[in-house]
Amino acid sequence: MSLTIKKITEPLLLGEGPHWDDRQQALFFVDILEYTIHKYVPATGAHTKTKLDGTVGFIVPVDGTTDQFIIGLGTRFVIIQWDGEEGTPAKIVQELGAVDQDVVPENRLNDGKADPRGRIFAGTMGYENPLGNVLPEKGSLYRVDKTGIQKLCSKIGISNGLAWDLKKKACYYTDSLERKIRRYDYDVDTGEISNLKYIFDLEKNNVSGIPDGMTLDSDGNLWVALFNGSSVIKIDPETGKILQTVPIPALQVTSVTFGGPKFDILFVTSARMNIGGAQEPPCGSTFMVTGLGVTGLPSTNFKY
């Protein structure tokens, strides 16, 4: 099967946070700067969205529901109810808490994902003005579960990609401004992370762009979106070697996740922010990559 890259949505400003919900056979994602959450159903091609009242960093379904989601809204973690229909209002049903309230000018929540036990790991990024100019070391990484919100690390520039290894012993994490990928020892029972080390350095590997969202395949390899790099790279986290590069027809590639009935489709989000020049279509579109010859793993939903 040959590699095929298909545009599945019209351009967004800052498409991000793709999450495949196996039960609904649907992809959920966000447009952070247009304050919208999105649903795409590959079987029908239906693409719906609705708008909230602030930036939306991520969206993850609440386990056992089809219409409730945890989102990062500004600097707040909230549970919303949305029926997935076009323009239907999303109602906040629970406030879980706010973070970085002491940071001025204000941060915002960025990428987030559920760990193997359904806890949310999500982080913040520094104030950005103009676009592309982010205050460094102002963000933090947090964990959200039934016990509350815990800060895991601080002095983060842009909190981004998250993934956990097949053995549930390692957490991979990206602060985009470092242009490196971190690895922590991970305790699946407590959700604690420790012993930071770096497993990949874009600079040393002559890779352009910055690391953004990422996901893991069923072979244990990382797939990393490269913002300003027009591609997704596949990395062996044990050796730090690049195994494959998938070109994407957008400069600002933001995140990736596997989905589809067989988990053999790589969904890729992108942006069209005017950073150093206008980004013409299909920049900002969401893409569907098939024929990679690998499969991903089911996304975990939020459990609390």
TrEMBL record:
<feature type="binding site">
    <location>
        <position position="128"/>
    </location>
    <ligand>
        <name>substrate</name>
    </ligand>
</feature>
<feature type="active site" description="Proton donor/acceptor">
    <location>
        <position position="212"/>
    </location>
</feature>
<keyword id="KW-0963">Cytoplasm</keyword>
<feature type="binding site">
    <location>
        <position position="212"/>
    </location>
    <ligand>
        <name>a divalent metal cation</name>
    </ligand>
</feature>
<dbReference type="GO" id="GO:0019853">
    <property type="term" value="P:L-ascorbic acid biosynthetic process"/>
</dbReference>
<dbReference type="GO" id="GO:0005509">
    <property type="term" value="F:calcium ion binding"/>
</dbReference>
<dbReference type="GO" id="GO:0030234">
    <property type="term" value="F:enzyme regulator activity"/>
</dbReference>
<dbReference type="InterPro" id="IPR008367">
    <property type="entry name" value="Regucalcin"/>
</dbReference>
<feature type="domain" description="SMP-30/Gluconolactonase/LRE-like region">
    <location>
        <begin position="14"/>
        <end position="272"/>
    </location>
</feature>
<keyword id="KW-0862">Zinc</keyword>
<dbReference type="Pfam" id="PF08450">
    <property type="entry name" value="SGL"/>
</dbReference>
<protein>
    <recommendedName>
        <fullName>Regucalcin</fullName>
        <ecNumber>3.1.1.17</ecNumber>
    </recommendedName>
</protein>
<dbReference type="InterPro" id="IPR011042">
    <property type="entry name" value="6-blade_b-propeller_TolB-like"/>
</dbReference>
<keyword id="KW-0479">Metal-binding</keyword>
<feature type="binding site">
    <location>
        <position position="160"/>
    </location>
    <ligand>
        <name>a divalent metal cation</name>
    </ligand>
</feature>
<feature type="binding site">
    <location>
        <position position="110"/>
    </location>
    <ligand>
        <name>substrate</name>
    </ligand>
</feature>
<comment type="similarity">
    <text>Belongs to the SMP-30/CGR1 family.</text>
</comment>
<feature type="binding site">
    <location>
        <position position="108"/>
    </location>
    <ligand>
        <name>substrate</name>
    </ligand>
</feature>
<keyword id="KW-0378">Hydrolase</keyword>
<dbReference type="GO" id="GO:0004341">
    <property type="term" value="F:gluconolactonase activity"/>
</dbReference>
<feature type="binding site">
    <location>
        <position position="16"/>
    </location>
    <ligand>
        <name>a divalent metal cation</name>
    </ligand>
</feature>
<dbReference type="InterPro" id="IPR013658">
    <property type="entry name" value="SGL"/>
</dbReference>
<dbReference type="InterPro" id="IPR005511">
    <property type="entry name" value="SMP-30"/>
</dbReference>
<dbReference type="GO" id="GO:0005737">
    <property type="term" value="C:cytoplasm"/>
</dbReference>
<keyword id="KW-0106">Calcium</keyword>
